[in-house]
Design goal:
The complex is a heterodimer of chains A (195) and B (72). The longest helix of chain A has 32 residues. Chain A is built from 9 helices and no strands. Chain A has a single domain, classed as Four Helix Bundle (Hemerythrin (Met), subunit A), CATH 1.20.120. Helix content of chain A is 78%, strand content 0%. In chain A, helix 1 runs parallel beside helix 8 and helix 4 packs antiparallel against helix 7. Chain A has 195 residues and is mainly alpha-helical. Chain B is an alpha+beta fold. In chain B, 21% of the residues lie in helices and 22% in strands. Chain B contains 2 helices and 4 strands; from the N terminus they run E-H-E-E-H-E. In chain B, the strands form 2 sheets. Chain B has a two-stranded antiparallel ribbon. Chain B has a two-stranded antiparallel sheet with strand order 2-3. In chain B, a hairpin with a 5-residue loop joins strand 2 and strand 3. Chain B is globular. Chain B starts with a strand and ends in a 5-residue tail after the last strand. The relative contact order of chain B is 0.34. The chains are: A mainly alpha (195), B alpha+beta (72). At the A-B interface, helix 2 of A face helix 1 of B.
Chain lengths: 195, 72
């Protein structure tokens, strides 16, 4: 019986990780959009973004540890850390490992952001756009519940949320309050240099 | 007194996101374009934690704390 408890924990933590990670990605896009309103200050969005990201790692750790220690799966720790080293569903598990390691890199660099500098941190933070879809594909490919109605609803909702946020972000363009001033200035500099 | 600190803004990095003013309105207000205007003088001791939070939360790492320079 304890075996199936671990297995349920793996599946449940995987689903929760997907929901949390999606929320983190959407909140991250919202910070770039500079969303704010009454009773919804901007530091709330960034604070939620960071705290939910840390919570995502907790559930992701639970997802991985319960999968590995489950004696039924017999995966071994190496397969949790080295992509495509698992005998079991090599490809799909490998995607999960890659997604996990990308997220780890993103979180660690975010915690050390002050030491790395903004530009380095930002480049690494772009990995989010790889980690999230790889995680979603991992879930669809090997999730035990992937094609059950409730899990399909969760996955579909998560994909829809990120796609909507992304489209909103792309449509909004730059929210730089001085963008028109900057472009005028840049154009003037270009004219001078062309002469 | 030697541990007095001041806030400084890197005006080139600053993007006018305005988070610092939300977190620390006691010392930071925003101009018409959303860029911070700092209240002159050292950071009061009781506002130090908020100042640290404002620094950590700046999306472009444009704000920092500096030890007050000694005046001759």
């Amino acid at each position: 019986m304890s075996n199936s408890v671990l297995w349920y924990a793996t599946r449940g933590a995987g689903a929760v990780t997907l929901i949390l990670l999606t929320a983190v990605v959407v909140l991250g896009i919202l910070t770039a959009l500079r969303v704010e309103g009454r009773g919804w200050p901007r530091f709330l969005v960034t604070g939620l973004h960071r705290n939910l990201a840390l919570m995502t790692l907790v559930f992701l750790a639970l997802h991985i540890v319960t999968a590995v220690v489950d004696p039924y799966t017999n995966l071994g720790w190496a397969s949790a850390l080295i992509p495509f080293s698992s005998y079991y569903r090599t490809f799909w598990l490998g995607l999960g490992v890659i997604s996990f390691e990308l997220l780890l890199a993103i979180v660690v660099t975010s915690l050390l952001r002050g030491y790395l500098g903004h530009n380095t941190w930002r480049v690494i933070h772009w990995l989010t756009y790889a980690a999230w879809p790889i995680g979603v594909i991992h879930g669809l490919g090997t999730g035990t519940d992937a094609w059950s109605a409730w899990m399909l609803a969760i996955t579909g909702g998560c994909i829809a949320a990120v796609v909507i946020a992304l489209l909103w972000r792309l449509a909004a363009g730059s929210r730089d309050p001085l963008s028109s001033e900057r472009s005028t200035f840049r154009a003037a500099v270009d004219r001078r240099e062309a002469r | 007194m030697s541990d007095e600190r001041h806030l400084v803004v890197d005006r080139i990095k600053c993007d006018g996101r305005g988070l610092c003013a939300e977190i620390l309105p006691e010392l930071i207000r925003l101009d018409d374009w959303g860029y911070p205007i700092l209240k002159p003088g050292p950071i009061p001791e009781h506002l130090r934690p908020l100042a640290e939070r404002a620094i950590d939360d700046c999306p472009v790492l444009a704000i920092a704390m500096r030890r007050a320079e000694k005046r001759s």
